[in-house]
Specification:
The complex is a heterodimer of chains A (about 425) and B (about 290). Chain A is of the alpha/beta class and about 425 residues long. Chain A is about 35% helix and about 20% strand. In chain A, strands 7, 8, 9, 10, 11, 12, 13, 14 and 15 form a nine-stranded mixed β-sheet that branches. Chain A starts with a helix and ends in a 13-residue tail after the last helix. Chain B has about 290 residues and is mainly α. Helices cover about 75% and strands about 5% of the residues of chain B. In chain B, strand 1 and strand 2 form a beta hairpin. Chain B is globular and about 60 Å long. In chain B, about 50% of the residues are buried. The chains are: A alpha/beta (about 425), B mainly alpha (about 290). At the A-B interface, helix 2, helix 7 and helix 8 of A face helix 1, helix 4, strand 2, helix 8 and helix 9 of B.
Chain lengths: ~425, ~290
Amino acid sequence: MSIKRRSVLKGMLATGASIAALKAPAVHAQAAPFKLGLLTVKTGPLAQGGIQMEQGVLTFLKEKNNMMAGRKVEFFSADTGGNPAGTKTKAQELVERDKVDCILGPLAAFELLAISDYIAQSKMPLLSLAAAEDMTQRRPNPYFIRASATSGQAMHPMADYAAKELKLKRIACISEDFAFGHEQMGAFQRVFEDNGGKIVKKIWPPLVTPDYTPYVAQIEDCDGVCQGFAGSNPLRFMKAYAGAGMKFPVVTGETGGDDALLKSFGEEAIGLTSCIPYTLDLETESNKRFVDGMLKNFDTVPGQYAGLLYVNCMVVEAGLQALGGDASDKTKFVNAMRSVNLTDTPRGPVKFDHLGNVVGDFYIRKLGKDGAKYGLKLWNKTIKTYHNVSQFWTYDEKQFLSQPVYSRDYPPLKP
Amino acid sequence: MTFWLILTVNSVAFGGLLFLLSAGFSLIFGLMRIPNLTHGSLFMLGAYFGASFMLGVGGVQLNFWLAAILATALVALLGALIERLLLRRLPGDALAQVLVTLGLSFMAADFCLMVWGGDPINIETPSALVGFTRMGPAAFPNYKLAIVAIAVVFAVGLWMLLDKTRLGAMIRAGVDDPDMARVVGIRVSRLFTIVFALGAGLAGFAGIMGGPSLSAYPGLDQDMLPLALVVVILGGTGSLLGSFVGSIIVGFIYNFGQALLPELAYFVLFLPMLLVLIFRPQGLFGRHIL
């Protein structure tokens, strides 16, 4: 993979160099390459998602022959190392040294929070996957765009489905003890309880937990479980869960049932119901193109990290097109991207609310063997689609924002 | 009742896995005084090698046990190379050894990421151990019970090796007084390579044995290394009995601590280590003071 990346980079650098060498007089903005930056994680425990992010971008660029809106694209990929300090350094490099036109990434909320102010000061459009709710809610950043989902955005419909269609009444929540986990579970709790259910318990294992059995042993007095694990943790949780002989149905959000995990899951995950903004089995033109591209370029099926980065690239392209290829005015550029209305992306239709967060489709899938493709043994089969889901779900925006952000203790457990 | 039973059996099973991991660490750290921070990486490499052999290398798919043996041998060989080529040159220099082994662990982590990618790899439970054994109201995975049995077998085997065989006597002699051992004709440096390879092999074996519940994923090394450290400091370096008892204690503290005081899970895990360091620095069964 690294060889491919290098050759892509080399090709792009060569183009940039030749244009510089010509020293063409009165270079139009359109003639200079469009510089696309990516902040991702290629080392350490977050690398699974980080590598997929880069693959999503490279698949898009390859498909488009490195062209966006008539301009050659120069691509800069930076490895943040998955920590806030590294993210800050790399963001500064992209902005000040490479002079990129916009940045995709970073992956994690704590990385995003480390650069949010800097991004706003330097007026750099940023399209991130990081799900921290307040980035598009109580502390919005005018240069921020999120085409993926807030932490709670997939959990709201999941809770709706769990209450109305799975007819669950009492659910125990379990997720990592950090902001993403807290926000997911808060969102699930609000909608589930508004539909007559009850959250009996919230369990918070630390991010690093080699064996989940002691936590699984605490699940009781319920008829269902909601897990919000990320990275490789869903795998080990489902094993420990099945290993302890537990049988309650399990529901989860975008990271807990990600398609990138399908090749690693075993029988123990069958029956897992998840809600996610990108699903491998969506049968649209653009998703077919994208999945074929991923298989051809990287010999792997995409999960949501790759899928959503591809969507981000489509948003950038559409914004650039709307401006006739001129991204020199960053404020105009970010507004153009926020105004796009894409009807066919690998995640379905995409548009944004006035805070820069996506309003799009979310898919409820059930994990099983039925319909498995691409050499996979297991498959997430979409069983229901929630259309045009906003970050505020069905709640009124003002009323939603007047309440505290979802956290470890909000909403509180009912006695 | 079931809750306590599940936790108890899981504590013992986790302790068994920790023993396989930390026995090697204790051998290397206690006997050779090398603070080997690649131990977590060796564990992870064992899991990855084993997973690869099971998925098939060059079209040949091995079953779990063959894959485990091969992965163990490979990691042991790697350990021998690390000792022979790097650590041999830094005798007695603990700081240099820490830096070299820490550097190696970073390299190993990136190597794994390059070769196996970031996606976690599932390791199937060996078919003979799928299923449950019922004990009263609770059911336990046979695989976890097997780990306990294997850990006991290894504990006895290692104890026999060190205490009852000629090789064991030579190792003990080489450790206690290397110069005198050399004078009587023991090739101490070769012995040390053997000990390091044995310790590494044990870590690799633990990696694949833990695979069915932990799977192989980037970051596994950093998850396991601190646990090995806690066990060895608690139990005492260089003592097999210490590793065994320490593993079981940590298994219990880990499981019960996380179940009963989840907020304080890490506090509860490291507190006994602190107490031991303060009141009994050589550990519960240790031979040397650190």
